[in-house]
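--- STAGE predict ---
source: upstream dedup step, 1 unique chain passed
mode: sequence only
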Amino acid sequence: TSTGVLTTQALTINSGATISDSNLGTVNTTNLSLGSSFGNINLTNPITALGSVSLSATGQVTAVGVINTNSLTALSSTRNIAIASTTALHASVNAATSIAVTGTAPAGTLVLDATNAGSFLQITTTATDLLMAGNVASAGNTALNIAGSLTNNGSITSSGGNVQVTTGGSFTSNAAVTATAGGLTVLSGSNLTNNNSWTAGSGDITAITTGGTITFAPGSAAIASNNVILSASNDVSLGAVAGAAVEISGGQSTTTSFAVMPVGSITQNGKITISGDNVRLYDFVNITTHGGATTAGTGDLAIQANGNVEIGQSNTLTAYGGDVIINASGNITS
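--- STAGE serialize ---
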């Protein structure tokens, strides 16, 4: 037990009971390791360990004060983890129930290793980018609220809830994003690029960027049990998209001539709406809707442009039980 200040190069404390500030005191060290084999870790004071901090407990792991460190590892084998503030730029967090971590480093990139939560998962950064080096999974809702840009080189999976990704900068999705029993929402402040697959097993896929483009690379996909809604302030370029209904819109494009550019096959059971300043369908694009058998208009394929519509070679536009409607203020060419 210490009620004073502990200053050392490295400090390791292992206890069979709960570890808290009341019996730990104030710690200043380079590398800190706290382990509770039968209790909790409850910290209220700031901790400075500029090298690394490791927190491992059978019970909950909570930290109210700032954890000043370069690398953070936290584990709860039966309960939750709640880290109110950490300056770490490298983290690995795993808990039997929920995880809530806020990164407060003033600059740089937080690298997140494999992270698993038994219920909901929330990762927040107040100023930095996030690089997912490992897979992130939860059994409940997953929320990633990133002040800067996000790159997921590991998959994002929610087996029992929704996935929501919010970024102030760009979002580059290099691995699968899956909401097995929910919906997927992506809100990006800059360019949004999907190089893998997005899946919503019981809900919509909604992707909105307020300051850039949406690009689905060849071979990528967005597949939803309900609707797929894609909206960009500039261009939209798509791979394969499938859902109950699809809405694709490009905003006022200033950098390229076409605001919406489907490049892959789009097939679903409801209405398809593609709109933008100008719409171009590249060669060998197949767009099919099977809806509209009982309700007029629900199976239409509608392309709407403030400017021109350009349809490439060997395209097939099909609306079973509905109409193919193309409206343009400018020219329609094929």
